[in-house]
Design brief:
alpha/beta; Nucleotidyltransferase, domain 5; five-stranded mixed beta sheet; 39% helix; globular
Length: 323
């Protein structure tokens, strides 16, 4: 039995690779910026970066990368056969068979691909905030919003494997343009990318005067400035984070109405600011979800592993597919 595996979470901003033991312990870590360079061979820039991460991580641990099971968690519509059909936040890899590309570059037959939010859901179900809970939705707040649905203890993949693309449910008709080509998608309002957009708008509209004064001009104010200032209880920043909480609650209310799920686990990069977002989201959810007081209590909890959930879950998939 193989005792360690490598899981890689490729997001819109960075790729994180973890060496993980079967009991969930993280033994090594490496990361790099996600490339957004188009190539004649679709997905090859992404494959090159991930290959380097895996080889470096293996070498540092004195392991042969070709003998380790590897799974890559990718954002977007992942077909059941592992091909990334469409990824709005990673267009340079849309349509790529990254499993084949990485298998060739690593000289390995143990390379697999899975949707990144599905990986995060599996991780939290096995080791984290969803352990012992057989029905919950994993919501990953990163550059966009990903989702993994666990029902009766099983991951729901859908007819083609595309289930869980919750970031692209429309919450504002004809709203903000989305990278997917649509308008008003949830991820344009409640993700890390959504916070970036709302920060720019708030700064330009004069709703962040202190931060604009500190940074010198409205264009220089970043989402990181808002989260840092909100942590210091600057009112204008707290108000904006509560706005993110409202948008998060709106999407959760839609999911609760459709799926009758009583538990949400919130992960992804923005989850590091969960203390600034989740309390308001829980408050708003009471008024936004149909018949909230007539339902069993709905819980909204941060993931146990934060931005690591996707990569850890990818390692879990690698274990499962080589057992």
């Amino acid at each position: 039995m193989i005792d360690v595996a490598i899981g890689v979470d490729v997001g819109g901003t960075k790729a994180l690779a973890l060496l993980v033991a079967r009991d969930g312990r993280v033994l090594g870590e490496a990361q790099a910026p996600t490339p957004h360079v188009h190539s004649d061979l679709v997905g090859s820039p992404t494959a090159d970066v991930v290959t380097t991460l895996i080889k470096d991580l293996s070498a540092r641990q004195g392991l042969d990368h070709s003998s380790l099971p590897v799974c890559i968690g990718l954002p977007g519509m992942m077909r059941r056969d592992g091909r990334l059909v469409y990824a709005p936040n990673l267009l340079s890899a849309s349509g790529a068979d990254l499993g084949a590309l990485l298998g060739a570059s690593l000289a390995s037959s143990m390379v697999f691909c899975e949707n990144d939010a599905n990986c995060a859901a599996l991780c939290e179900h096995e080791w984290g905030a969803g352990r012992g809970i057989d029905d919950f939705v994993m919501v990953t707040l990163g550059t966009g919003i990903g989702g993994g649905v666990i029902a009766d203890g099983q991951l729901i993949r859908g007819r083609s494997g595309f289930a869980g693309e919750i970031g692209h449910m429309v919450v504002v008709a004809r709203g903000a343009p989305c990278h997917c080509g649509g308008h008003g998608c949830w991820e344009r309002y409640a993700s890390g990318g959504g916070l970036n957009r709302l920060t720019r708008e708030a700064a330009i509209e004069g709703r962040l005067p202190t931060l604009v004064a500190q940074r010198g001009n409205a264009a220089a104010v970043r989402a990181e400035d808002v989260t840092a200032a909100a942590a210091q209880n600057l009112d204008e920043a707290v108000v904006l984070m509560k706005e993110i909480g409202w948008w998060l609650a709106l999407g959760l209310a839609n999911l609760a109405a459709v799926l009758d799920c009583g538990h949400f686990v919130i992960g992804g990069g923005l989850s590091i600011a969960s203390d600034l977002v989740l309390p308001s989201a829980r408050e708003y959810l009471v008024d936004l979800v149909e018949g909230c007081r007539a339902r069993p209590a709905i819980t909204v909890t941060p993931s146990m592993f934060g931005p690591r959930s996707g990569a850890m879950g990818a390692a879990l998939v690698a274990f499962e597919r080589t057992s």
